Amino acid sequence: MKNQVPLYGICEWDDYFAHADETGNVNDVMGKFDSQLEKHLEAGFENIVWALGRATLSYWSEYAEMHQPAAVPKTHIIGNIALREFCPLRRAIEWCRKNNIRISGRLCMNRFYQPGQEFRSIFAEAHPEYCQKKHDGKTDYTRMTYAVPEVRKERCDILLEAQRIGVGSLVLDFCRQPPMAGYHEEELKIYMGKTGKDPKKLQGYEPEIFTEWFRCRAQGVTDFMRGLRISVAEQEQEYGRKCPIIIRIPANSNWLLLAAGIDLDTWYEENLFDSVMLSPLLWCANDMSHHFEYHVGRAHHNSKRIIGGIGSLNLIPQKIKDINTPHASFEEQPIWDMAYRQLNAGVDGMSVYQTDTLCNISWLKEIIPHLGRLDVCSEKKLGWPSSRMNSLMTACDWHTGNDYGLNGTGTRIAL
Predict the structure, then answer these.
(1) Do the Cβ atoms of 69 and 118 come closer than 8 Å?
(2) Which residues lie closer than 8 Å to 27 by C-beta, 6 or more apart?
(3) Is residue 210, in this structure, part of any structural domain at all?
(4) CB atoms within 10 A of CB 383
């Protein structure tokens, strides 16, 4: 068992600058920008996972027209001096090459926001018919369905462009935001055409009752993975450099991932990705456990690398200006415990989410560099320090819990 594994910093660089002043000239902003990258180096990160965008894009793109905010941005980095004056992605790639750091491009795979929010893109706003549907028939404007070819193409185009620009690998972030599939008319057609049944009338609590429906509605996402795999391989041949596909997924049970539109059985069988990156995201009260051992065993059985994950929940103060003062809900022990469980299971690396901000927090500087070390985490972990919900959730994915209407006891939600 490895005593130390490489660290991956998931850098939401624009989130940090969203809280920063927009004063100063472009050289001032470039200096702050480079400083963020340097802090990753100081913290021991060998890999930087760089934000490409969500619905809108955070780099200079040939597809920019359809991926600008549909609403007028406020004080966010989108549209301010940094993105106006230079391409953050290209600058980060250049910096990483000079400093011998590997860089991946990370895209949120289904995070389109509500109409009127600053991150909602023109593409999403122009196509409400592509938006996901819930069990009750209401439109979920924050997600789009992969059962529509135009949505698959929109996400694929962005990832292929990032590959051409020069990222070393692609991180497909399916943690933003499960479920990937729902009850859109095109998804219903697939199941009804195969079975003649209406999936909304399925009754029961056992996952097996819904397995065929879950796999049918996941078909759009699987078709996306198939197309991306082929296109990435073609560009690898054209440009003469490998670009592995990494899937970032919640450390959920296999049935819950399938319910969310992530058909791991088919993805493994057809070799549609190269590595797995886990996130401790608890989003459904039907299963509130982290299945680290299962995912490590499955990845290694299929000769694939797997990277663990530390979330930022309860690690970041409510006000960014308070980063030098530990906040009341901060607990150190759950961080060590979260890392230990995954290192002990045998992960090949450890990712840390929102390092753009975490690397600036004084009381985390002595913790982060050791999160890839089994011996240190084993010594430091003391179990859960209390039964308070904020301690139980510490180091989970930022969107765990309240984002999905979960409370202390959990709330069963309709999938």
Answers:
(1) yes
(2) none
(3) yes
(4) 8
